[in-house]
């Protein structure tokens, strides 16, 4: 029924559109040879729309997604390089799983829109080049490492690939401000989802009242919120305040030690919570690495594997410990 409605309205829209696009072809345009549609700008006109159509087009879809992902299989917190890589690997290998990504910023990418000191290029040590090949990006090979000409090229490419997968939803401008936990019959605690709010609301709990959050249940939560900052290292810090996890602050810079440590130690740091990327440095006191991103990508890949290894067991517990 829904798709029939869509088809009819598309046909109507096309009919309207053709009225507005009659005689739009401009033979004199200098870009005519390189683009398909070249318009006559004097007669150019968009198809008509009523403002409420725009509102409904957005809100109906958003609320449908809120409803669908209130019970997610996996929640990824943070859409930086580690979080988006993890989402890509997970969603591609398990199209049956519902994966929600929660990002506190409006824009995705975290610290990966630029390289160090806000320079453009992105350096990745091998073997992270394998993943870059998989997503089809060009790079310069410098022997032991590769260079992508702009970090933004990596992050926008991986983001477009993740968002085009049907089993992923990105909720951006939304912060995780707490975790859902469950206690088993034997008394052990496990993470069982996230507590969310609009980021702007999360930032104003001290000066506004009555701003209760929303929740998403999940069998596994993967935290990729980066190193410490206003919002960074969120899940590690939250569990530490409850005495559920020990927090050790990020160590000094050592690229060689840091990258291997982050990738190798990517793990389930607390039942139900997998930690990846620079957030791990706040857990393990591993060294900071500065602007080299191979470890973020490999940690994201490793986190996807860890999450799938524990998924069935956590899903079983989720049923039992309602
Ligand atoms: C200016 C600059 C400084 C850098 N400093 C360092 C450094 O000191 N040490 C180092 O090793 N590398 C540093 N880097 C390199 C690089 O940025 C990071 O190592 C890398 O970005 C970490 O990747 P990540 O995916 O783990 O986290 P990030 O890229 O930081 O991504 C984390 C994402 O999680 C989101 N997030 C955080 N909290 C929440 C929450 N509660 N709810 C929802 N979303 C949340 C953030 O908005 C962000 O998008 C720096 C880079 C730049 C450009």
Automatic annotation (TrEMBL):
<feature type="binding site">
    <location>
        <position position="111"/>
    </location>
    <ligand>
        <name>substrate</name>
    </ligand>
</feature>
<dbReference type="GO" id="GO:0052837">
    <property type="term" value="P:thiazole biosynthetic process"/>
</dbReference>
<keyword id="KW-0539">Nucleus</keyword>
<protein>
    <recommendedName>
        <fullName>Thiamine thiazole synthase</fullName>
        <ecNumber>2.4.2.60</ecNumber>
    </recommendedName>
</protein>
<keyword id="KW-0479">Metal-binding</keyword>
<keyword id="KW-0408">Iron</keyword>
<keyword id="KW-0520">NAD</keyword>
<feature type="binding site">
    <location>
        <position position="278"/>
    </location>
    <ligand>
        <name>substrate</name>
    </ligand>
</feature>
<feature type="binding site">
    <location>
        <position position="212"/>
    </location>
    <ligand>
        <name>substrate</name>
    </ligand>
</feature>
<dbReference type="GO" id="GO:0005506">
    <property type="term" value="F:iron ion binding"/>
</dbReference>
<dbReference type="GO" id="GO:0160205">
    <property type="term" value="F:cysteine-dependent adenosine diphosphate thiazole synthase activity"/>
</dbReference>
<dbReference type="GO" id="GO:0009228">
    <property type="term" value="P:thiamine biosynthetic process"/>
</dbReference>
<dbReference type="GO" id="GO:0005829">
    <property type="term" value="C:cytosol"/>
</dbReference>
<dbReference type="GO" id="GO:0005634">
    <property type="term" value="C:nucleus"/>
</dbReference>
<dbReference type="InterPro" id="IPR036188">
    <property type="entry name" value="FAD/NAD-bd_sf"/>
</dbReference>
<keyword id="KW-0963">Cytoplasm</keyword>
<feature type="modified residue" description="2,3-didehydroalanine (Cys)">
    <location>
        <position position="210"/>
    </location>
</feature>
<keyword id="KW-0808">Transferase</keyword>
<dbReference type="Pfam" id="PF01946">
    <property type="entry name" value="Thi4"/>
</dbReference>
<dbReference type="InterPro" id="IPR002922">
    <property type="entry name" value="Thi4_fam"/>
</dbReference>
<feature type="binding site">
    <location>
        <position position="82"/>
    </location>
    <ligand>
        <name>substrate</name>
    </ligand>
</feature>
<comment type="similarity">
    <text>Belongs to the THI4 family.</text>
</comment>
<feature type="binding site">
    <location>
        <begin position="103"/>
        <end position="104"/>
    </location>
    <ligand>
        <name>substrate</name>
    </ligand>
</feature>
<dbReference type="InterPro" id="IPR027495">
    <property type="entry name" value="Sti35"/>
</dbReference>
<keyword id="KW-0784">Thiamine biosynthesis</keyword>
<comment type="subunit">
    <text>Homooctamer.</text>
</comment>
<feature type="binding site">
    <location>
        <position position="176"/>
    </location>
    <ligand>
        <name>substrate</name>
    </ligand>
</feature>
<feature type="binding site">
    <location>
        <begin position="288"/>
        <end position="290"/>
    </location>
    <ligand>
        <name>substrate</name>
    </ligand>
</feature>
<comment type="function">
    <text>Involved in biosynthesis of the thiamine precursor thiazole. Catalyzes the conversion of NAD and glycine to adenosine diphosphate 5-(2-hydroxyethyl)-4-methylthiazole-2-carboxylic acid (ADT), an adenylated thiazole intermediate. The reaction includes an iron-dependent sulfide transfer from a conserved cysteine residue of the protein to a thiazole intermediate. The enzyme can only undergo a single turnover, which suggests it is a suicide enzyme. May have additional roles in adaptation to various stress conditions and in DNA damage tolerance.</text>
</comment>
<feature type="binding site">
    <location>
        <position position="227"/>
    </location>
    <ligand>
        <name>substrate</name>
    </ligand>
</feature>
């Amino acid at each position: 029924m829904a798709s029939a409605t869509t088809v009819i309205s598309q046909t109507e829209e096309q009919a309207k559109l053709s009225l507005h696009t009659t005689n739009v072809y401009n033979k004199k345009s200098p870009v005519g040879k390189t683009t398909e549609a070249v318009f006559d700008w004097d007669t150019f006109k968009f198809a008509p729309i009523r403002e409420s159509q725009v509102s409904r087009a957005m809100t109906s879809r958003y609320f449908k997604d809120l409803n669908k992902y209130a019970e997610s299989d996996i929640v990824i917190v943070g859409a930086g390089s580690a979080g988006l890589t993890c989402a890509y690997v997970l969603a591609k290998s398990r199209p049956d799983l519902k994966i929600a990504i929660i990002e506190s910023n409006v824009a995705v990418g975290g610290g990966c829109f630029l390289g160090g000191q806000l320079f453009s290029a992105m350096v990745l040590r091998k073997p992270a080049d394998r993943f870059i090949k998989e997503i089809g990006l060009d790079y310069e090979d410098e022997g032991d490492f590769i260079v992508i000409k702009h970090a933004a090229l990596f992050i926008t490419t991986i983001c477009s690939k993740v968002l085009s997968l049907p089993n992923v939803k990105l909720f951006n401008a939304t912060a995780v401000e707490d975790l859902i936990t469950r206690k088993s019959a034997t008394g052990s605690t496990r993470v069982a989802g996230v507590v969310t709010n609009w980021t702007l609301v999360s930032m104003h709990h001290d000066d506004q009242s009555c701003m209760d959050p929303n929740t998403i249940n999940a069998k596994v939560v993967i935290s990729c919120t980066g190193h410490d900052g206003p919002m960074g290292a969120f899940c590690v810090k939250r569990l530490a305040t409850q005495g559920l996890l020990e927090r050790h602050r990020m160590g000094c810079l050592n690229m060689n030690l840091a990258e291997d440590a982050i990738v190798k130690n990517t793990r389930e740091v607390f039942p139900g919570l997998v930690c990846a990327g620079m957030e791990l440095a706040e857990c393990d006191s591993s060294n900071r690495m500065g602007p080299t991103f191979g470890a973020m990508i490999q940690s994201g890949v490793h986190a996807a594997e860890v999450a799938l290894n524990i998924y069935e067991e956590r899903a079983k517990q989720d049923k039992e410990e309602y």
